[in-house]
Amino acid sequence: MAWIDLEHAVNARDLGDLPTENGVRTLPRRLVRADNLQDLSPADIIRLVDEIGVTTVVDLRSTNELKQEGPGPLTTVDAVRHVHLSVIPESLGNTDASSEALAVNRRRAAERDPSDLMRSFYLGYLEDRPENIVGALRTVASAPGTALVHCAAGKDRTGVVVAMALTVAGVPREVVVDDYVATGERIELILDRLRGSPTYADDIDRLPAEEHRPRADTMHGFLERLDADHGGVLGWLAGHGFGAEDVWRLRDKLLEA
Fold it and tell me: What rounded mean pLDDT belongs to the chain?
């Protein structure tokens, strides 16, 4: 994994140089994923903007998270466009780990499939905010430089959007899943960061630490469910207005010529 070492974010990586089924590879510095960007240092901003070329940030956090956290350091950089696209209903509470959100999400997840509640949460993002999933992929495709997608942990909401982007690009499923699982290498660091934030401190330990660790079968199951119900990621996207031209633009953005 192409980890990006930052002083005040712990789950950032470049999704370049991944193989695809067509024999080309994803390009570096086109799509980056990360955790919360609230505490970036001046050196972190130089690394992301000047060295990696970030021009566009896709923020998947809820409106309440944004309000509670306040503007992050990267929002002061005029050259970087920030696009807010929450993937959870705004009525469910402050974060997707809040007690109200967990109660509602767990009930709905159990109704979908009680065998893997996290996978059901991911399906809920697609059911609840399909327009923002599509909007996130379009924003990545149209970014003039590097697009950075993030949420709080950079694991679940970010994991779903990135998995869909990589699948559109033709990255094999096992590689998509490997990228998702890689967050587990830094899960304790991620949780420690979130515990240090008043926004997340009370919510993060509502689940045992091990339940936060990404599991390969969760992402496999999520993608298999899309296969069975929608003809795969491309089928789901086509059903929500993300057509052939959108697919071409995203592939053109992420792939070698």
Answer: 91
The domain that contains 97 carries what CATH number? 3.90.190.10
Instruction: Give the pLDDT confidence of 109-146 residue by residue, as tens digits.
Output: 656 666 778 899 899 999 999 999 999 999 999 999 99
Residues 63, 247: Cα–Cα separation, whole Å: 28
Q: Would you state the structure tokens that stand for residue 10, as one six-digit string?
A: 């712990």
- Distance CA(206)–CA(203), nearest Å, equals 6
178 class by beta-carbon count within 10 Å (0-12 exposed, 13-18 middle, 19+ buried): middle
pLDDT for 201 equals 87
CA of 100: how far to CAs of 219, 226, 234, in Å?
A: 25, 27, 32
257 domain-assigned:
no
Task: Report how many domains make up the chain.
Answer: 1
pTM confidence score = 0.92
